[in-house]
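Ticket opened by: R.M.
Priority: normal
Category: complex prediction / small molecule

The reporter submitted a protein together with LLZGTKA7 and asked that the result be attached to this ticket for the collaborator who will pick it up next week. Submitted input follows.
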Amino acid sequence: MTIDPSVAAKLVVALDVPSAGEALDLAAKLKGRVGMFKVGLELFCAEGPAFVREVQKAGPVFLDLKLHDIPNTVARALEALLPLDPSLLTIHTQGGPAMMEAAAEAVRAHRQRGGRTRLLGVTILTSLGPEALARLGSTAEPGDLALHLARLAKDCGCDGVVCSAREAAAVRAACGEAFHRLTPGIRPGGVAAQDQARVVTPAQALREGATWLVVGRPITQAPDPAAAADAILRDMATA
Ligand SMILES: O=c1ccn([C@@H]2O[C@H](COP(=O)(O)O)[C@@H](O)[C@H]2O)c(=O)[nH]1
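Result attached by the on-call engineer:
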């Protein structure tokens, strides 16, 4: 089955592995098959900023560091990261409006200099369900809070949000098609949720209006990562 390149472009593979060697091996196996590679905290902490450029040789990079601090600190951290020109970068919406505005300003200035980076605000982690939120002191449903934070992220100048695909349709309706929805917590039917709480299948995530799907372990821990990615792409193609 031939996969439409516009479908493949929506699949982001999380390179959640401890070393450069393992990450580059995976990237080589998946190069040209998927749309983007995610460098997250594990790999960034192990290999540092310069390694991002190595991954970019295999494809566009989503740098998922979920920055969360006072506005000045986040803006300065972004200014240090933006010369890497990742396609996507994350901050936490719960750092607050002033932090998101400072981050959006730094990213806007980068784009005015010719950069391509888009800024996404993480709403409610897909590993959190209602019980975990209640223990954090919130009586809101995760979906309602994610939608509230998505509206706020848009007002503060973010280009989109990270949310569960369960919330993607509501975010699109409230914030518009151009405001991106990047959705982790993707699990093909019958695959264990592991530490994820708000999971959705690949085809359902696209039907709900996700801009990008982030998939880690179902691909990276499969005996044949390229075959696992192809199976997910085939499911996406049915949406
Ligand atoms: O709310 C969030 C935000 C980010 N993530 C990241 O996505 C991947 C998911 O990996 P799986 O192995 O497919 O569960 C991982 O890198 C997380 O850091 C998320 O899961 N939820």
